[in-house]
Amino acid sequence: MCAAEILPESWSVVRDGEDRYSVWPDDKALPVGWSKVPISGTRDACLQKIKMIWIDPRPLGLRRAMA
């Protein structure tokens, strides 16, 4: 990221079909396959929430196969 690039102020936590989490700027359309989780705020606040809720980073399909 270059110094002139300005990050959006509002972000949301998003999750895909494999229960993987990410942050996404509120002013951009979500990519196909991702949905918003009801958590939003600054980018850093969203990343902190992800750290708390995403305990097992393995994709859902792998977790099911190993169960």
Brief descriptors of the model:
3-stranded antiparallel beta sheet, 27% helix, alpha+beta, 3 strands, 67 residues
What does this structure look like?
This protein is an alpha+beta fold and 67 residues long. The protein is built from two helices and three strands, in the order E-E-E-H-H. It has helices at 43-53, 60-66; strands at residues 11-16, 21-25, 34-41. It has a three-stranded antiparallel sheet, covered by helices on one side. Strand 1 and strand 2 (21-25) form a beta hairpin. It is elongated, with a radius of gyration of 14 Å.
Number of continuous helical runs: 2
Uncertain residue ranges: none
Radius of gyration: 14 Å
Instruction: Tell me the distance between the termini.
Output: 40 Å
Helix content: 25-40%
Let me know the largest β-sheet: 3 strands, antiparallel
Total beta-strand segments:
3
Question: Averaging pLDDT over every residue, what do you get?
Answer: 90
Q: H/E order of the elements?
A: EEEHH
- Side by side, the strands of the main sheet go 2-1-3
Shape: elongated
* Structural class designation: alpha+beta
- Beta-strand fraction estimate: 25-35%
